[in-house]
């Protein structure tokens, strides 16, 4: 496991906020962190990043302590709100962050330029950060977090203040990071975003991980096939899919996307009317309501 | 020491209009002050600069949340703190050298030479500003934005009040202890070159920086610290 947390406890003046958190994030995986206000998400994130010192428990990243400089060299972080010297220009800020992160001097400008262009704020690079909108600050926050191609990425509400294009861009960037093997921990209140981006979701409540849900499996695809009512024989559908439909919805596991086509073809050939086929994910809203 | 942090700290000051305006003011005082005997006017301004720049070594970054972006980078906390201090001290010393240069130029134009007096003022300014920045870094490592300046000013006033008030009321040992603390934290600048004084200031600054590093290493930096 890349990011490993065991028995993490943190209290503030007698008020225990984290009460034994356990979590793992593997390379190439995006794990979402959700929970009601005051659940301890920010405290957990702060402990993981070394801003707060836990009272008990261990945090290891790639087998090392989270404040190990080699770990830091491979860590990226986007805070919910970007705060930096507002007199600084975007360029100055990004160059400084890149140099601090250990990007070789010769590559600082080219990487900065590429990321600023990618995030759509290259034209504002010479402007002071005080003139940046909330969304632009968020975008430059993503730039500084990714400029050194980190392996461990911590995102705290990365899409807050972003327009729909920005949200899509962040989604793409996260997907790119996981494709190159980065482990991503995403703290967000936007359940729809979590559903779209994350492989797993952890529900933090009362200082512990109260619920874990796998949204995407590495070795299989879960599909939901909605069948036309009264058009199918439940026993025949069960023989084809291996599971019986519930009411008129069939939730089935397949290995590949080609298998989805085969499943649908077999269902249609058996006489079942197929209305809709989509990737099945847990209904986070229901889970959130139920667990909260 | 992190060259990146030192360079960035210096760059921020050197690109600030306020810094250059201050240098212009310093030039006026330094050139005009030559008539009053070497190094009389500008050292006070250099110390004021040390207070203003030293006040912002860590506190504002802690309060604004900027520090979180820095602390996830591969820079040791103590190295970061010392590098910030080095950048601020370098800027203050640069101002002191400029002031000494302006005074020397003013005196030369006037047909006078007061190299010794200027040299003593320069070395005293170096030592004084180093101690001020080190103390502010220490106070800043345990407090929030600019509280360090308040503590620094408050401690001076408190010690002076205690010395004045306690002159006839406090037992001699207590008075001696207060004088010792005052003499170490806020040593009076000698009029001539005093190697022992320079050593005392350098040692005290080193202790302040050591304490600052220890405090900052263990300090928690929660989100939205203020």
Explain what the structure shows:
The complex is a heterodimer of chains A (292) and B (226). By secondary structure, chain A is an alpha/beta fold. In chain A, 35% of the residues lie in helices and 27% in strands. In chain A, the strands form three sheets. Chain A has a six-stranded mixed β-sheet with strand order 6-7-8-3-9-10, with helices on both faces. Chain A has a four-stranded antiparallel β-sheet with strand order 2-1-4-5, covered by helices on one side. In chain A, strands 12-11-13 form a three-stranded antiparallel β-sheet, covered by helices on one side. In chain A, strand 1 and strand 2 form a beta hairpin. In chain A, helix 3 packs across helix 4. The longest helix of chain A is centred in the middle third of the chain and has 16 residues. Chain B is mostly helical. Chain B has one domain. Chain B is built from ten helices and no strands. At the A-B interface, helix 1, helix 2, strand 6 and helix 3 of A face helix 1 and helix 5 of B.
**What is the number of independent domains of chain B?**
1
**N- to C-terminal separation of chain B?**
28 Å
The count of strands of chain B amounts to 0
Shape descriptor of chain A = globular
* Biggest beta sheet attributes of chain A: 6 strands, mixed
Short description:
Chain A has about 290 residues and is α/β, with parallel strands linked by helices.
What's the structural blueprint in terms of helices and strands?
The complex is a heterodimer of chains A (292) and B (226).
Chain A: E1 3-12, E2 15-25, E3 30-34, H1 41-48, E4 56-61, E5 64-65, H2 69-73, E6 75-78, H3 90-100, H4 105-118, H5 134-146, E7 152-156, H6 164-179, E8 183-187, H7 191-197, E9 200-205, E10 208-214, E11 221-227, H8 234-241, E12 249-254, H9 257-269, E13 274-279, H10 284-291
Chain B: H1 3-14, H2 17-33, H3 42-54, H4 59-64, H5 66-71, H6 77-109, H7 115-142, H8 147-166, H9 172-185, H10 195-218
Helix pairs in contact in B: 1-6, 2-3, 2-6, 3-6, 3-7, 6-7, 6-10, 7-8, 7-10, 8-9
């Amino acid at each position: 496991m890349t990011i490993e947390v065991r028995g993490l406890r943190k209290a503030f003046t007698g008020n225990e906020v984290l009460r034994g958190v356990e979590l793992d994030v593997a390379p190439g995986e995006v794990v979402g962190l959700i929970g009601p206000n005051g659940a301890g998400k920010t405290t957990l994130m702060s402990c993981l990043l070394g801003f707060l010192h836990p009272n008990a428990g261990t945090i290891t990243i790639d087998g090392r302590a989270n404040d190990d400089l080699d770990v830091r060299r491979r860590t990226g972080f986007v805070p919910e709100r970007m705060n930096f010297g507002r007199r600084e220009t975007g360029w100055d800020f990004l160059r400084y962050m890149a140099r601090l992160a250990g990007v070789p001097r010769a590559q600082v400008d080219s990487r900065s330029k590429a990321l600023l262009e990618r995030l759509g704020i290259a034209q504002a690079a010479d402007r002071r950060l005080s003139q940046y909108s909330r969304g632009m600050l968020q975008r430059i926050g993503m730039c500084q977090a990714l400029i050194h191609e980190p392996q461990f990425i911590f995102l705290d509400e990365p899409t807050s203040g972003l327009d729909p294009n920005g949200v899509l861009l962040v989604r793409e960037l996260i997907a790119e990071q996981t494709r190159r093997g980065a482990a991503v921990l995403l703290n967000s209140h936007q359940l729809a975003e979590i559903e779209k981006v994350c492989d797993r979701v952890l529900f933090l409540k009362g200082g512990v991980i109260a619920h874990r849900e796998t949204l995407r499996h590495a070795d299989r695809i879960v599909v939901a096939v909605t069948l036309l009512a009264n058009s199918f024989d439940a026993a025949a559908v069960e023989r084809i899919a291996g599971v019986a439909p519930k009411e008129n919805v069939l939730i089935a596991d397949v290995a590949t996307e080609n298998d989805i086509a085969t499943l649908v073809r077999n269902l249609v050939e058996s006489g079942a009317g197929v209305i809709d086929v989509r990737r099945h994910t847990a209904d986070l809203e229901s889970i959130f309501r139920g667990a909260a | 020491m992190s060259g990146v942090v030192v360079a960035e700290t210096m760059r921020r000051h050197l690109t600030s209009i306020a810094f250059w305006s201050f240098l212009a003011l310093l030039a006026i005082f330094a050139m005009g002050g030559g008539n009053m005997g070497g190094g009389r006017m500008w050292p006070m301004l250099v110390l004021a600069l040390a207070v203003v720049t030293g006040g912002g070594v860590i506190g504002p970054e802690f309060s604004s949340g900027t520090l979180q972006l820095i602390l996830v980078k591969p820079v040791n906390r103590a190295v970061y703190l010392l590098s910030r201090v080095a950048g601020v001290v370098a800027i203050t010393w640069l101002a002191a050298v400029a002031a000494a240069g302006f005074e020397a130029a003013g005196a030369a134009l006037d047909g006078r030479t007061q190299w010794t007096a200027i040299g003593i003022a320069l070395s005293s300014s170096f030592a004084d500003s180093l101690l001020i920045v080190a103390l502010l870094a220490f106070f800043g490592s345990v407090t929030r934005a600019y509280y360090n300046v308040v503590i620094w000013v408050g401690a001076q006033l408190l010690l002076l009040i205690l010395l004045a008030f306690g002159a006839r009321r406090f037992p001699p040992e207590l008075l001696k202890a207060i004088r010792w603390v005052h003499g170490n934290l806020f040593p009076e600048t000698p009029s001539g070159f005093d190697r022992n004084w320079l050593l005392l200031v350098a040692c005290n600054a080193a202790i302040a920086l050591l304490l600052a590093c220890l405090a900052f290493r263990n300090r928690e930096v929660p989100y939205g610290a203020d």
